[in-house]
Specification:
By secondary structure, this protein is α+β, with helices and mostly antiparallel strands. It has helices at residues 40-50, 52-66, 85-99, 195-214, 231-245, 276-293, 313-346, and strands spanning 23-25, 32-34, 101-108, 115-121, 126-128, 139-142, 155-159, 171-177, 220-223, 267-270, 353-354, 389-390. The strands form four sheets. The protein has a six-stranded mixed β-sheet with strand order 4-3-8-7-6-5.
Length: 391
Amino acid sequence: MKDENNLYSIKGGEFQAIELPAIREVRGKDYMAFGADNLFPQTLIDLYDNSAMHHTCIQAITEGVLGEGLEIIGDEYINTKGETIDEIFEKITLDYALYQGYALNIIWNKERTSIAEIYHLPFANVRSGKRDEDDKVNEYMYSSNWANLRKYPYETYKCFDATDNKGDNASQIYYCFNYTPGNEVYPLPGYVGALNDINLDHRISVYHNSNISSGLQPSMLLKMNNGVPTPEAQREIYKEIESTFAGENNAGRFFLTFSDGPERAMEVQTIDPAGDDYYIQLENRISSRILTAHRITSPLLLGIKDASGFSNNADEIAVAYAHFEGTVIEPKRKKIVSTYGYILKLAGYNVKLQVKPNRLLSMNQVTDEPGNISQDAPNTIDNENYPDEIN
């Protein structure tokens, strides 16, 4: 016989940490799995979409690499969709900032002597084929939805090869990524060490939103001492209490109870929530770790005011951006410009490919105080040097 009083059970959930993706062969499949469920790139997209700090960091890196665009040939059309070289450059730069890699669909002309069209492929939708006996990848797979291959089956393409582009191999995939130790076919983003902090940034935002809109943070414990009602009655009582006190508009309302004796009275026990200092410290920790993972030394680069020892914001921005440009922007820009420039040369654009860097400050925004070093900082209005170019 069931115990009628045993109506409740409480279960604790396990925290799901984001783990580094397992990159392995899958029996019976032609591709290499990217993550336990083969959806690690989609996880990176979710983090990018849901963490405000991380999203802003990726955008800052992307805009820094893009600068003011490609000079000379940026406005040239590169495919039958009417996309320009600059538009493709913008897409692959965002992919590279997010994934540490990008992918292009290369289509050769009928004579197979030069590239006729170049299309951007969403990096998250491309998977590597298995390596041969020489540890070389010969093909790549593309699907618009790897979570539902039954509806969106993948197509196989020859990996980019200028010497093997005849027949069905005229349409190829150029898969560019930075080498990561231990990962020969897929890249890991530079911010990989902060994945859980980025995820936590999103979860804390959802948590606070839930507290305000639904009042789900337990702030009091109600004890009914007049017996155990039926399940239907329990649900009605719960709905009544929730409608009365849950939500931001019901803050400050009070209880009024009636009972026929002190032993049957309802007990209200308060639960002290974490103080504001706790969340402020947690927010600072998360922000610091995300900025560190992206190697952004000053929050001012993201439009976040932060106390510093500089005389004014212009000085701090100039110094911080000089470091950001040298350690983050230039290496990424060099890789993208070099690889993309190689493909463009095969398409007949045999010109010097260069990017005009962003100009953040004019010289009249920088102080002339003793010890000021921002006069020589890069990206000011008088700087005409463009170091990111290939011959």
